[in-house]
Amino acid sequence: MRTAGLAKTYHVGFWGRRVRAVENLSFEVRKGEIFALLGPNGAGKTTTIKMLLGFVRPSAGKAFISSEPAGSVASRRKLGYLPENPALYEFLRGDEYLVFAGRLAGLSRADARKQADRLLERVGLAGRADRAIRKFSKGMVQRLGLAQALVGDPETVILDEPMSGLDPIGRKDVRDIILDLRNEGRTVLFSTHILSDVEAICDRVGIMVEGRLTDIGALHDLVAPGARAVELVVEGLRPELSERFAREGAAVLERDRSIVLTFKAEAAAREALAVALAAGAAVVSFTPHRRSLEELFVERARGKAATS
């Protein structure tokens, strides 16, 4: 999956005011990986997904899925999609709906029935889908929507806010399904604003703010290029050494029988560690504090808000 200079501008209101939803978006999702589009509400994630699916025509740029132009019949042959708010046929039973989706995907009635049973088991709805969808809870609708996204064994799966409306157990189940899809060699792109989901399952992440891609890469590359502070906890440290570290810029805190030293630079902390060990002090812990995904995300969102 690949985009190049993708952009979308809407004209809204009586005077046709221009609203730029997505601007100059370029990224690639590699085969067999889990990629997250992370951003606050209104960042342009859903608009991006709709352009990839061909539901919305881009104002500029191009997008490709499986090397085929986005929106073409060929690009959709092995593509599964879960919208943010699934609009299912509420008068059908859950199992009937999956059989219907399978028939639309070209399966025989018997194969569609077998796949429906297998998918209901996979999403945790086995034995619970024999009622009209209008009687489903929001979490059950979300699970059924995920099942229909997997009809036809797609090679690429696009999920728009897949954990929306799920309780903690449901979110854990969906994360496990996404990981299983990767283990089966499938490619998964999903959008979210929930940081814990990204940290739990993603290979790479792209951060979107106000229609622009501000960062892209593996989590360890984005959030841990270096420690922003290092905490060294020791026992039996001589007072003169404690005073020396304080003069050199460390924050010193006495706690019970131990002394907590906080350094701004990892190199200074490692030097202090060597000095403390040489002086016979006992090291309780050495903890680098690195920038978290939450800090990076908030920094980008607030930075954009400040300049807009």
Which descriptor suits the 3D outline? Answer: elongated
Secondary-structure element pattern, one letter each: EEEHEEHEHHHEHEHEEHEHEEHEH
Major β-sheet annotation: 6 strands, mixed
Give the number of DSSP strands: 14
User: Which consecutive residue ranges, at least 5 long each, have pLDDT under 50?
Assistant: none
Radius of gyration: 25 Å
- CATH architectural name of the largest domain: 3-Layer(aba) Sandwich
pLDDT average, as an integer? 90
From the N-terminal CA to the C-terminal CA, the straight-line distance is: 30 Å
* CATH-defined topology of the largest domain: Rossmann fold
Total DSSP helices: 11
For the largest sheet, list the strands in their spatial order: 6-7-8-3-9-10
How big a fraction of the residues is strand? 25-35%
The H-level CATH homologous superfamily of the largest domain, spelled out, is P-loop containing nucleotide triphosphate hydrolases
CATH class of the largest domain: Alpha Beta
Number of domains: 2
Structural category = alpha/beta
The proportion of residues forming helix, as a percent range, comes to 25-40%
Protein traits:
308 residues; alpha/beta; Rossmann fold; 2 domains; six-stranded mixed β-sheet; four-stranded antiparallel β-sheet; 37% helix; elongated
3D structure, described in words:
The protein folds into 2 domains: 2-223, 3-Layer(aba) Sandwich (Rossmann fold); 227-290, YebC, transcriptional regulation domain (Alpha-Beta Plaits, 2-Layer Sandwich), CATH 3.30.70. Helices cover 37% and strands 30% of the residues. It has 11 helices and 14 strands. Helix 3 (94-104) packs across helix 4.
